[in-house]
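Table S2 (text version). Query chain:
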Amino acid sequence: MYFVSFCKAATATRVRRALLAMTFAPLLWVVDASLRPDMPPVASATVVRNALMQGASAAPATSASEPVVWQVQAQGPIPSLGQDKAAHASSLLPSSAGLLVFWFSGDRESGPLVQIAATQWDAGQQQWLPARAVVNRHTLGRDLGLGVRRLGNPVAWRDGQGRIHLFVVGTGWGGWAASRVVHLRQCDNPAASDALSQLCFEPVGVLPLAWGWNTSYLVRNAPLPLADGGMVLPVHFELGSKVPALLRFDAQGGYLGMVRISQRDYALQPALLPLGEHHWLALMRDERHDGRILAAQSQDGGKRWQDLPDLDLLNPDSAVSGLTLPSGELLLAHNNSPSGRERLDLSASRDGAHWGLLRTLESGKPEDEFSYPAMAWVDGQLWVTYTVDRARLAWQRLAPVPASVERKTP
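Corresponding structure-token output:
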């Protein structure tokens, strides 16, 4: 009897704490935002696009009267890490040694055995190398001097000196809403390289995103590289009301400041796309029932943002991935379904407001899941990775070809 009463009291205490946190979290965010310095000026989006596409060839030119078809050149599963039963939230990074993929892998999402895994495309053998762990929570916690119970959502970036950085979600007690963003940097030693077998990361620290708890921030989508070697990283605040924001970093990976993207408290996981010299677009996940992909724009290189009407694209509370091609065309990978993630589409736009379907990447039964896409443009081809049923990752490589020369998909 005493044990039952104790359990009920403990449960009531946890509920009260959760309600208290949800009540004060938005207030803390507002106070924190008022105390932050303004984000420094950022490079124009025209230069951003050039920086983003360095080393990438443009799509093949075709006649304006001839339709183009996005053809799958190759596809398949990405190697799992050992016997892990869960894989999720991939991030892509082009590299001279081969395209790198990072994700979190373990026995289950939010499980204590989750690690950050990586693999690399071997162009000579035309296959992925065996996956290996590159970040372990025990080692990370020891180096930070903090308790790290869970890892998730790695996002990769290369700084102005060529070093790879990883931004990883880490939690102590609590779930994703109690997370922090941990910043890691490629080990500074002569043996360090982009080769998968040599990848090594050391923690820089926990990003100082709030003056109080400094918690409940998560990363998900790719950063936008800038011409000065720095970048802007999209993040969101998770606890209670959602707050999408972007972070500015210098060429060495030093954190400079934060700007809120949208005033809507149901928008999260922003994906950033440059549209013009100072014109940026953010496309976001919608937490509401029967939601649509949410949009906001900045016309001054990310310093101030304005909410836009929802896109005419369904969003079943799921992540999206956006990419601006060298030609200026915008691509979007998204779950175009009212309530599930059984369909993954690739859509295109010229203005960011009107989108058309290029092709359906995956389509399954209502209980199937193809989610959390990531994209990269390498050597004139589009690489897409995504999660399948929260158990494994899959990939596709596509190229735009004239419809007249389309061949059968391999």
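Notes on Table S2: The mean pLDDT is 86. The first strand starts at residue 68 and ends at 78.
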